[in-house]
Write a structure and sequence with these properties.
- There is one protein chain.
- The protein is mostly helical and 286 residues long.
- It is 57% helix and 7% strand.
- The protein has helices at 36-66, 72-97, 103-108, 122-138, 142-149, 157-162, 186-189, 199-211, 217-231, 243-278; strands spanning 20-22, 28-30, 110-114, 164-168, 193-194, 235-236.
- The strands form 3 sheets. The chain has a two-stranded antiparallel ribbon. The chain has a two-stranded antiparallel ribbon with strand order 3-4.
- Strand 1 and strand 2 form a beta hairpin.
- Helix 1 runs antiparallel to helix 2 (72-97), helix 8 runs antiparallel to helix 9 and helix 9 (217-231) crosses helix 10 (243-278).
Length: 286
């Protein structure tokens, strides 16, 4: 009878969301691409600035050419040179030296980065500017708008060819962290029996524990007393502390126990998955 060996454990797959990037250490980082309308606004500001520069050049050149200093051939050469500077050279230089930022992107809070999250360099900036001559200037941004509307990260054609996208640099502030267990309740927490609270009451207690320092003293005391009265039937024994300390202590205990339950549940699932992988998936030949 041939020996039956358990198959090798399958490689662990990493599920990467479209708004995440995978680093070289196989760590998925959560990123926030800038939205379509904000990116369109930033592009419009950059193009408007370029148009104003060209208009300024035209006014200055008109004064000079009005004095018949240069011929028509020189005027055409200088005009083409200025267009190349405004459409390609200046955008490439700005994005290269500012690591993917321009005036429009600063206004909307964006930055051009590589698809892997790294800083964009000269090559990416040059490709974006070169393709932008067609999709932005020659078509007045219509091609970029159509392509950006149907790509996950609002990437225009130049981004797809250069391997870049616009990352959000202004993220909302994190909510205030929940306070820990009050020192006066450390001994009580070792023997406290806190039953499962109603969902609505549990949310109100958690919200109060985070926002209590921001409330006015009178409203804070009144709300703490109301929550303590509703929570008291679910707690045994009752500690001899003020209502606010009691409510914050209950919130800390419930949060710690729920976190412990989630950790234990995750460990249990991993053990079950490991047991399933170790079960032989073949039958011996007779």
């Amino acid at each position: 009878m041939p020996e039956v060996t358990a198959p090798a454990s399958p490689a662990r797959m990493i599920d990467v969301h479209q708004d995440e990037i995978l680093t070289g250490e196989a760590v998925a980082l959560d990123v926030q691409p800038i939205g379509f309308f904000l990116r369109a606004l930033g592009t419009f500001i950059d193009m408007l600035l370029g148009g104003l520069l060209f208009l300024l050049f035209t006014l200055v050149a008109g004064l000079m050419f009005g004095l018949d200093v240069f011929g028509d051939s020189v005027v055409r050469i200088v005009t083409v040179t200025m267009l190349v500077l405004i459409m390609v050279v200046i955008p490439t230089a700005v994005e290269t030296f500012t690591r993917g930022r321009s005036l429009g992107k600063l206004v909307v809070g964006g930055r051009i980065v590589r698809a892997d999250g790294g800083a964009a360099g000269f090559r990416q900036a040059f490709i974006r500017a070169l393709v932008g001559v067609f999709e932005l200037w020659f078509t007045f941004g219509s091609v970029a708008a159509v392509v950006g509307a149907f790509t996950p990260r609002s990437q225009r054609l130049g981004d797809l060819l250069a391997g870049t996208y616009s990352e959000r640099t202004r993220t909302p502030a994190l909510p205030p962290s929940a306070p820990g267990l009050p020192p006066a309740l450390e001994e009580w927490a070792t023997v406290a029996d806190v039953a499962r609270l109603p969902e609505r009451l549990s949310r109100r207690i958690a919200h109060f524990a985070r926002q209590a320092p921001l409330l006015e003293p009178a409203a804070r005391a009144r709300l703490a007393a109301s929550l303590a009265a509703e929570t008291a039937p679910h707690v045994s024994p009752m500690p001899t502390v003020d209502p606010e300390t009691f409510v914050c202590g209950v919130a800390a205990i419930r949060r710690e126990r729920e976190l412990r339950g989630l950790v234990l549940e995750g460990e249990r699932v991993e053990r079950l998955a490991a047991g399933v992988r170790d079960v032989p998936r073949g039958f011996p030949e007779r």
